[in-house]
TrEMBL record:
Signal peptide: none annotated. Gene3D superfamilies: 3.40.50.360. SUPFAM superfamilies: Flavoproteins. This is Unannotated protein. Pfam families: FMN_red (PF03358). NCBIfam families: flav_wrbA, PRK03767.1. Belongs to the WrbA family. One of its GO terms (cellular component) is membrane. One of its GO terms (molecular function) is NAD(P)H dehydrogenase (quinone) activity. Residues 6-191 form the Flavodoxin-like domain.
Length: 201
């Protein structure tokens, strides 16, 4: 039996989703997985990025490699993260997901375990609908969707979102310890499910 391989693919403008992505990765690693963390390419105009100091600082500071389709082929489990954009994922992540037609056609993605996580600036800003929108790709791929669920008491007691880890970034606040723990739980859960799937092929 080999260790499960997990790819965490995200888009982040100011760094909140990136922090969550690395927490998901840490949870998967704690469960014995080999992990890649990848950001999707930034496509926003330079002037838009420069208009927000936090956005510019994150773009300048991030060192994660840019996601490629090979990362999806390599992995047994996939985690995708994005801030909400009008109740759906950011166009940068959506554009990457929309390049997966060849992998879908070949059936490669049908053996993957997949999960999603997100942020919004308000409690009703589209957290659940963004996760569900990302999950729509997994239905078409034929993948096994791994929700966060309520199996871990931390989720039931503290965060209350069984769809996937989420953070409400009021006034630009960064993910707190409870959110990052939910991300680690989600990463562990993904690694365990992906490991069972990959070792039973």
């Amino acid at each position: 039996m080999r260790s499960p391989r997990i790819a965490v693919v995200y888009y982040s403008a100011t760094g909140n989703v990136a922090s969550m992505a690395h927490a998901v990765a840490a949870g998967a690693e704690a469960a014995g997985a080999e992990v890649r963390v990848r950001r999707v390419a930034e496509t926003a105009p330079e002037e838009a990025i420069a208009s927000n100091p936090r956005w510019q600082a994150f773009v300048d500071a991030t060192r994660d490699d840019v996601a490629a389709l090979d990362d999806l082929s390599w992995a047994d489990g996939l985690a995708f993260g994005s801030p909400t954009r009008f109740g759906g994922p950011a166009s940068q992540l959506k554009a990457f997901l929309d390049t997966t037609g060849g992998l879908w056609f070949s059936g490669v993605l049908a053996t993957k375990a997949c999960t999603s996580f997100t942020t919004a600036s308000t409690g009703h800003g589209g957290l659940e609908s963004t996760i569900l929108a990302m999950n729509n790709h997994f239905y078409h791929w034929g993948s096994v969707i791994v929700p966060l669920g309520y199996a871990d008491g931390h989720i039931a007691r503290v965060t209350g979102n069984p769809y996937g880890a989420s953070w409400v970034s009021r006034s630009g606040s960064t993910p707190d310890g409870d959110c990052l723990e939910a991300c680690r739980i989600q990463g562990r859960r993904l690694a365990v499910v992906a490991g069972k799937l990959s070792n039973n092929e």
